[in-house]
Amino acid sequence: MTETVSVTCPSCFEAFEVACPDPVETPCLVDYDCEVCCRPMFLRFWQDEEGGVDAEAQGPDD
Q1: Residues 6+ apart with CB under 8 A from 8
Q2: In sequence order, what E strands does 1-62 have?
Q3: Is the omega angle on the peptide bond into residue 60 within 30 degrees of 0, that is, cis?
Q4: Residue 54 region, left (φ>0) first, then alpha (ψ -120 to 50), else beta?
Q5: What is residue 40's DSSP assignment?
Q6: Distance of alpha carbon 27 from alpha carbon 55, whole angstroms
Q7: Domain total for the chain?
Q8: How confident is the model over 8-34, as pLDDT tens digits?
Q9: Residue 53: helix, strand or coil by DSSP?
Q10: Which residues contact 15 (CB under 8 A, 6 or more apart)?
Q11: In terms of residue numbers, what domain contains 31?
């Protein structure tokens, strides 16, 4: 089962779920389009303290 995490689009401010990469592939930065407004963003993934993966959305100019 693929783990998901909620992110909020920096353009339209809508939240949605994205699939997480494997924890051994973090930290990483992924080019992604918002699932609501289709604007480009970057998703920054990192391993949290419990060994899971967390994420944050950033605009292309951030």
Answers
A1: 14, 15, 57
A2: 4-8, 15-19, 28-33, 40-47, 53-58
A3: no
A4: beta
A5: E
A6: 10
A7: 1
A8: 999 999 999 999 999 999 999 999 999
A9: strand
A10: 6, 7, 8, 9
A11: 4-58
